Amino acid sequence: MPEMMAAPGVGAMERVREYEELKGVADPAIVSNASRSGLGVTFWVCFTWVAVMILLALLASVLHLTNPNFQNYNAVNAGPSIHHLLGTDDLGRDLLSRIIYGSRVSFVIGFASVGIALAIGGALGLLAGYTGGWIDSLLNAGSLVILAFPALLAILVIEAFWLPRTLLKLTIIFAVAGIPSLFRVIRATTLSFASREFVVAARAMGATTRRILFKELLPNVIPAAVSFALIGVAVAIILEGSLAFLGLSISLPTASLGNIINEGVQNNNLSTNPLIALWPSIYIFLLLVALNLMADRLRARFDVRAGNL
Amino acid sequence: MARYIGGRVVQLVIIIFFISIVAFLLVHLLPGDPSTAILGPNDTAQARAELLRQLGLNKSLPLQYWTWISNVFHGNLGISFLTHQTVANAIGVAFPIDLELIIVSQLLAFLVAIPLALVAALRPNRLFDRIATTSTYAMLAVPTFVIAVILVLVVAVKIHIFPATGFNPIGQGLWQNLKTVLLPSIALAVGSVAIYYRLLRADLIATLQEDFITMARAKGLSTPYILLRHALRPSSFALLAGAGLSIGSLFTGAFVVEILFQLPGIGFQLIAAINSRDYLVVQGMALVAAIAYVVINFGVDILFTFLDPRIRRA
């Protein structure tokens, strides 16, 4: 995502880690439990956690959850109980159900937009990185110009004027915003493989450009792509939350994680029922930590480098 | 060197030209006409046509762009049709708030990150280092708005130390002003703390293995003296680079914080203008904010080219 601006930290971590490696300084979190051969326990714990969250979001309609928009005025601001595991909000809506339905928005925006950005940016990056020449120069310069523009600003203005805000539109906007960064990552990774022996050998044996791109380069580029895509998903989820705060996420009353937190801080809710804002905050926090750690382990395992970008 | 900077300046000018077009098109190509907001209940076909003529919105897009951009070059960003304030004036009032927010948050970040790094680097991979380094993952993963919510909940709602929202200008006294700026600054600083801590820690660990540190130890100097007087300065290049590079993203990161805490900075004003379709203000603020962002990043880049010649060759 452009400059990772909604979350200055998420993208910056990659560079910090590289600097530490450059200095030969180990990260104790890595030393303690990652082996070079496998992905480590942390990865699989995080993977399971994210998988369960996605499964819950997918199965939301089968799970006999209360309708997330049903307002039960007999149970306004109720605490956690058997009927409402996480309690209810100021309109008597079940918080557990709202969070699970709300996470659907985050997951769809996160994974779909990054998937689209990866498909388009990745294809262009692969092509530019392997063929070079004027295509590469043109795309490279273009991506730099787009990345120089503060994306949050553009997204703010587009979302404000392009009404009504639906899931599809948000996904498209996020995907477009993500293309230049993913293009650069894939291009840099492709470049690092393009002159390796196996590619030269394939070309010497008369392999077509298409074959080299898809059979030789693509499989090698995938680990880097997945690692960066996970961070992209985290950034998209943060961005959706931030926009919800500005009243610019998906139109109400549809729940999204950001919308719920936003409602939780309005109308004095924070002092009467802090749980409304607290549960989705915890959910987002755990989700993002898991995504980041997964990306980090993948990076360490496959020795992905953001350098030379 | 001159050639490198010249190339970068040309790049900068091209980018700024694109920014002006984007800022203009964003507002003009999207549906949602400012005339609806201005006219309100007096929305008749005739009044609308008259208004569009007054605003110059009936002309062709290139002509509108030309009128706008030539006015911009004369320092005239237009007038808000809601507040009747000039856009330049509104930006002049809002911008110092962003600046204060960034400066205070960075001071706080340094204040926390430097001592943490000093202590951690002294005994790398031991308990303190492990706890601090691992928690940077958490600090980086929490979105600013979550930090802000927790801060308001704990400090403003439960124990009433700070007001939850609002802004006191510095004219009301430094403490009154800081009371409203401190919480937003903390929310903004958390991510920076994590990065600065990790960068300084890495450099310090490397520096502390150098011969001159062993020499200082052999002379019997105290550990705090060695850390502060011998090790800190040669270890701070990456820290300063990190700080410089994050100014641009802090600038947009401040937007979210401003909305949450109702600080009337650029971000807050921009959202208000967007919501009321005050298009000249949106256009002007987007233009100025985007240019500020690009120019800051450019300045930092050039600065580091002087400090670290390797960048030029990269």
Instruction: Give the helix tally of chain A.
Output: 12
Helix percent of chain B reads: over 70%
Morphology call of chain B:
elongated
Mean pLDDT of chain A: 76
Report how far apart the termini of chain B are. Answer: 13 Å
Describe the overall structure.
The complex is a heterodimer of chains A (309) and B (314). Chain A is mostly helical. Chain A has helices at 8-22, 28-33, 40-58, 95-131, 133-148, 151-161, 167-194, 197-204, 209-245, 257-265, 269-272, 275-302. Chain A starts with 7 loop residues before the first helix and ends in a 7-residue tail after the last helix. Residues 1-10 and 31-35 of chain A have low confidence and may be disordered. Chain B has 14 helices and no strands. Chain B has a single domain, classed as MetI-like fold, CATH 1.10.3720. Chain B is elongated. Chain B has 314 residues and is an all-alpha fold. In chain B, helix 7 (144-158) packs across helix 11 and helix 11 runs parallel beside helix 12. The chains are: A mainly alpha (309), B mainly alpha (314). Chains A and B meet through helix 1, helix 2, helix 5, helix 6 and helix 9 of A and helix 1, helix 6, helix 7, helix 8 and helix 11 of B.
